[in-house]
Amino acid sequence: MVWRASVLTIFPEMFPGPLGSSLAGKALASGLWSLEISDIRDFASDKHRSVDDTPAGGGAGMVMKPDVLARAIDATASDTRPRLLLSPRGLPLTQARVEALCGGPGAILVCGRFEGIDERVIAARSLEEVSIGDYVLSGGEIAAMALIDACVRLLPGVMGAPHSAAEESFAEGLLEYPQYTRPQLWEGRPIPEILLSGDHAKIAAWRRAAAERLTRERRPDLWTAFLQRFRGGSRDT
Ligand code: SAM
After folding, report:
1. Distance in Å, CA 61 to ligand 1 centroid
2. Which atom of ligand 1 lies at the shortest distance from residue 89's CA?
3. What CATH number should be reported for the domain holding residue 192?
4. Pairing of strands 52-53, 3-9
5. Across the strands, what pairs with 8?
6. pLDDT at residue number 237
7. Residue 82 and residue 109 in one domain
């Protein structure tokens, strides 16, 4: 069974978009994963194909209608895949969650628009809200693409070197160490000598120290979690 992504959107023409290029696109073309797009407007019941209405209680903008969205979900989601609603109110997406999703059968992704979707359909169809960060996009499509891209690149056979994911940012709870390539001297800046030494143990130690320093400096939240998880909180920060 290939990993299956089903996306519910009022902008089906946005897909596959960037998911049709590069690693994800090649993997899609070679059948390592599948993408189904459902146009929520196909489930509207009026001749204008309306998917939204004014907010109860008043206020700006429009709200996606529960009946139309529920019909779209029911026509797509007859299996055990997690049903995710892209939403700034959701738990932030993490690499650990991406790995868990990637290890499963796929995901059903509901893209909100306007001011969001009627609260009742979230409960009635057991949608789990997932955020891709503390900022507001104009719709869930780009968030869905980000989530799918993060999952697909971890599928077996998608990335070139099998160890690439293991050494990346977040894999061990740390940000990745700095990377360099030729030329050896560029605009007066040399590649750190140790990386040219051929001493693999020393290179690994340098990379580890650099990863720890970057994480400590840039992401105190990750650093604290790393210390608690891997070192029992014993190391001074
Ligand atoms: N009124 C909503 C609020 O304040 O939370 C924002 C609605 S936003 C303009 C429209 C849609 O974009 C949302 O329903 C959601 O699907 C998507 N969206 C916006 N920001 C997002 C984020 N950070 N992560 C995931 N989805 C997001």
Report:
1. 13
2. 5
3. 1.10.1270.20
4. unpaired
5. 38, 110
6. 44
7. yes
Q: Is 146 in the pocket of ligand 1 (CB under 6 A)?
A: no
Q: What is the pLDDT of residues 167-215, one digit of tens each?
A: 788 988 999 999 999 999 999 999 999 999 999 999 999 999 999 999 9
Q: Is 87 in the pocket of ligand 1 (CB under 6 A)?
A: yes
Helix axes 95-102, 141-152, angle to 10 degrees: 70
Residue of 9, 65, 83, 86 best suited for mutating to test ligand 1, as the one with most atoms within 8 Å of CB: 86
* C-alpha–C-alpha distance, residues 98 and 147, integer Å: 7
For 114-135, write each residue's pLDDT tens digit. 999 999 999 999 999 999 999 9
Number of domains the chain contains: 2
User: What range defines the domain where residue 192 resides?
Assistant: 168-227
CA–centroid distance, residue 153 to ligand 1 (Å): 24
Q: What is the mean pLDDT of the chain?
A: 95
Residue with tokens 């949608």: 127
Q: Which atom of ligand 1 is nearest to the CA of 116?
A: 14
Closest CA to 114 of 172, 162, 50: 50
One domain for residues 96 and 198: no
Q: E strands, the chain, where?
A: 3-9, 33-39, 52-53, 63-64, 83-92, 106-111, 128-131, 185-186, 189-190
